[in-house]
Amino acid sequence: RGLAAWIPPAVLGLLFANYPPLIEGPFRNAAGGVDISLPVAIGAAAVLYLLTLWIWPEPSYVYPAADGPRLVPAAPGQKPPPVEGGRAPIQPAIDREPVRGSGPVG
Q1: Which of 25, 63, 70, 75 could make a disulfide contact with 15, Cβ separation 3.0–4.6 Å?
Q2: 57-99 tens-digit pLDDT
């Protein structure tokens, strides 16, 4: 969700960039030659991120209980239980051939 809301505005910002000779976007003169790439990218990212939250809402437990979500819906969901003992469970190793030179030295 975050990358979907970040990549298109970054590209859009580059289209409005006006920093000669390094980069000159095709819409660089949209504001009379003033570089408006940052406000365009920030505004587009904010709108696109809210849109992605409408399409794929976060579960309700990620929002503060007193306030709840603002401007966006919340999906139903149960909060996962905490990890016991402060450590994640250890996954069994995959059986495979050892890589040469990756074993202990000795």
Answers
A1: 25
A2: 888 888 887 777 888 888 888 887 777 766 666 666 666 665 6
Q: Which among 5, 76, 82 is positioned nearest to 43, based on CA atoms?
A: 5
Dihedral (CA of 52, 57, 59, 62) sign: positive
**So what's the pLDDT on residue 98?**
59
pLDDT of residue 16: 93
Question: Counting every residue, how long is the chain?
Answer: 106
The structure tokens listed for 48 are 């696109």
Apex 56 CA angle, 3 and 43, nearest 5: 50
**Residue linked to tokens 């999906």:** 75
